[in-house]
Specification:
Mean pLDDT: 84
Structural class: mainly alpha
Low-confidence stretches: none
Helix content: over 70%
Oligomer: single chain
Number of helices: 10
Radius of gyration: 36 Å
Distance between the termini: 121 Å
Strand content: under 5%
Largest sheet: none
Order of helices and strands: HHHHHHHHHH
Shape: elongated
Length: about 200
Amino acid sequence: MSIKEQVEYAKEELTQDEKLLAGLIKAERFYKRNKMLILGIVAVAVIGGIGYGVMDYLKEQRLLAANRAFLALQRNPADSQALATLKAKDPALFELYELNRAIAAGDTTALEGLETSKDPVVADLAQYHAAALRKSEKGLNAYRMKSEALLKDFALFDEAYLLVKAGRIKEADERLALIPAESPLKPAATMLAHYGVAKGAR
């Protein structure tokens, strides 16, 4: 390597070292100027990470407690402490448990209370089962008229059954005709319609 090439190489090395040093000095100045802001951002990130971890842990513990309470209620439905724990830790699961319990017990008062649930599925099922358990033609009719009714076909079938029992065969047939052909209730609806015709012929 010639002396000229060595000088050029040294200059290039010095230039790169100068650029690196200049970058470090700029970074140091930026840090000194914005030290509090940088430390604040780091602190917020650390606290946020810790807070997220703690919230996640607490949520997991709350769900575990709710699940333990639910399992305890499956073993012993009279366990009032487990019921209170379930209600406090997981209100949505508590409402589902209460819905299931009320349907099994035929408790229309509890079902009427669940009709105002914030969970639309719980409210819908509670309204249907309350009307069906009360054998309320008016309640079933009101339920099936809702556009978002989940068990509309069942309400139609129940209403038709009540009409057949009351001897109002024509109205029952009208209700049964509203059950769609693809509904799993259609075969039962057809049988009920034949039963109604046979009953009306007597």
